[in-house]
Amino acid sequence: MIVLHGNRKEKQLMNKYDDIAQYYDLLMESGYYDYQKAAQSIDSILKGRKKLLEIGVGTGLLAEKLLELDSSYEITGIDFSTAMLDRSKARLGNRAKVVEGNVLSMDLQEDFDGVYSQGGPINFNRVGNDYHLNMLPNFEDSVKMLNNIARHLVDGGLLVLNIQGEKTEVDGDRDIGNGIVYAQQKHLCFLENQEMYFWEKDYIFKKEGEIVARDRHKFLMIYGQLLEDTMKAAGFKLKQATPDDLYMVYQKAI
């Protein structure tokens, strides 16, 4: 068993977005993501699967676009950030169920046809022609997270994870509106002879040259055989990377 950065305090294990929540929508809608295109891609993958769980629902931007495409979706969104959830509740109203919690300990007492994540605690990064899985900074907790996600999926259910590439990186400062300028800094830490590495990312928001909000998040990346073995151990089989290169799709074993 591999244990890395094993601080057991739950709030220190999760990357929270409370400090930057008030600027999050400005950033996301400034071209950082195309939520309409993302929703169309997820809709094409999950068509016919109505009961969905969004991991890291954030402010509800993606769930809103999905419901605009098909109002019959039964979406439950979970997030660890109270500030983000306040915004998602205001956006989604009674069209979706929003739950405060985290994927390590969630016990929603129901199964879902599909689980999807745009970012949150789990997604993929494209590195050249390869794909690296972006997870919690503790490997043991990441395994627990995958097992818990699988537990909430019906047999044959789909796990749909966003693929982030160079297009989602910000080069220098970006004016995102309302006088707010966004910048990010990324720091890598490679582990010798292991198919994993850490990276940290600073989210920086400035107004008139002064920093008004800043968050640093830490992640663990795994790839290669370790990635294959980890997903298989959690009961997931790779189905496809979508043709638009937006999502990696796994299926829970039947």
From TrEMBL:
Record-level GO BP terms: methylation
One family name in Pfam for this protein: Methyltransf_25
InterPro entries per record: Methyltransf_25, SAM-dependent_MTases_sf
GO MF: methyltransferase activity
Keyword Transferase: yes
Entry keywords, A to Z: Methyltransferase, Transferase
Domain Methyltransferase: 53-156
Protein's name according to its UniProt entry: Class I SAM-dependent methyltransferase
Organism: Okeania hirsuta
